[in-house]
Amino acid sequence: MKNPVLEIEHLRKIFGNFVAVDSLSFDVEEGSFFSILGPSGCGKTTLLRMIAGFLSPSDGVLRIRGKEMNSVPPNRRPVNLVFQNLALFPMMNVRDNIAFGLKRQKLDKKTITFKVDSILERVHLQGYGSKQVAQLSGGQKQRIAIARSLVLEPSLLLLDEPLGALDLKLREQMKIELKKLQSEVGTTFMYITHDQSEALVMSDTVAVMNKGRFEQIDTPRELYSNPATSFVAGFVGETNILPVKVISNNPLKVATLFGLELAGVTAGETTKAKELDLYIRPESIMLDPDAGLQDINKFSLHIQNILFDGSNTKVLATIDKSDTEITVALPQSSQFAHIKKGSVVSAGVHADHCRCYARG
Fold it and tell me: What CATH class has 238-358?
């Protein structure tokens, strides 16, 4: 990696007997959008607060632009933090909110005016300087909170689940806005979220966190296509999970609890265990597959329900001779218009898409 803006080495945080962050080591590249994705309680906000300086590490080293930050107080670190509640000052107009940090730096009025006007233009809110916070929409408040941080020209902007309080439609819009804004301004963003869609859509790199550790650091595409662990496979994206027993290795062949035999591949951690979990993405399952396809596991599905939400159609089905329910993602094609609730259809999935992990 060239020009890391943030370097973390063996960082730990312990509260009593509880290890919240456990020996993390990673770098964040200059100008990138780096996200930390994980469930509630996994340690991601604790990590963010250590980087911001609000918590002291129990062990390890934290550097920003090559300078050790462990003993540097929050107000002297080249970072800014955007909270979920935004923390805008309701008694101040937009201009004064953005100028607040600049005034504390005791900059002259001409410089403050220039910087505020420039950042308002960059977040596409020219002409909003005199408006009160209460007059802004949720998305506009979000951009003002980010502008207030960016105007101080931090080396690193930390965002702690900033879209969590927005409604679904606005969150979808803001994901695109944030990615565009980060690309335009070039500031390094470090984004904390439990929402996989936010992380996958916006990020250059995603670290998946679980129980204080990173399970995998990778591009969004690699996280989805090649999960390193069963946790990543189950947490990132939607997947069907079937408990299986190993029949043979090289090549791998497994059997479900109801007797369906499938060819698959071992993924993530290597294991000699006889009991595994088989992961299949809904979009990997083909309906009415061509008879000539090679390395295809074939079975029948009984259609239980069809879920249509406009852009996507999903089928809930049970595998023949079982009550095991799986989800199938249908392509937007009239080819499958004949499929109805109660239909029985042939299905197939390529062996490479039947990924087996050690049972957690």
Answer: mainly beta
